[in-house]
Amino acid sequence: HQNYVGLDNDKSPFFLSIVLNEDTNTCVPLCRAILFKKTGTQKISLPISQNKVLTVKQILSNFPNMDKVEKGPKEIFSPDIQKDLLLLEEQEGSVNFKFGVIYMKQGQTSDDEILSNEYGSYRFEQFLSLLGDKIKLRGWDKYRGGLDIKGDMTGKFSVYTIYEGHEIMFHVSTLLPYSRDNKQQVERKRHIGNDIVNIVFIDAENESAETAHSQFNPTCIKSQFTRILFEHMLK
Fold first, then answer.
1. Which intervals hold domain Rap-GAP (predicted)?
2. I need a surface site. Which of 69, 75, 120, 170 has the fewest CB within 10 A?
3. In a 3-state reduction of DSSP, which class is residue 89?
4. Taking a C-beta distance cutoff of 8 angstroms, is the pair 200, 216 a contact?
5. Rounded to two decimals, what is the model's pTM?
6. By the 8 A CB rule, do 191 and 147 touch?
7. Strand 157-163 vs strand 40-47: parallel, antiparallel, or unpaired?
8. Which DSSP letter does residue 226 get?
């Protein structure tokens, strides 16, 4: 994932974000790029030839009116600017996504209870395997979705997949750090509470799906960012 800044033909600044990945349907390597200008945002996807390397200027030339930019853009190395651009990407429909996955036992009614589940059930593990691959975070070199990849500060493992060329990192409640002393599980809330989409897995062992559904109150997941909640019930 690389970010660049430059000036267009009108001497107006622009930002360019580039991600290289693979289309899961065709297995064709793709270059996905988002161009941020004061006039709006544009996106393109370009196939990558194994025998030819695309330069940044070549990628830029595929955007309207950007083929005659005098100077090539400069790569951005500032972590703060990279973080801001990543947020912009997510707001724009994004190249990559991060979704929350919450394990909930029957009878639990508050987010403190739900996020205090230290482990999930075997059935929850089966569900996670449908979403993606369980990956080791330390040393991870692909999209990390805001998780720590150096010191296990956000857990040792996570779940990751690529869907139609888009990288997806799942913030799994039971894989994020658990604290016996902190009933509010602040570290888990910090990630899941900032996800726009959360999937709630209701482990309704002794209840019907209808009963479990009626007992679940979406407002118990307190967040200023979450806009979509999916429920998955298993009995």
1. 85-235
2. 75
3. helix
4. yes
5. 0.60
6. yes
7. unpaired
8. -
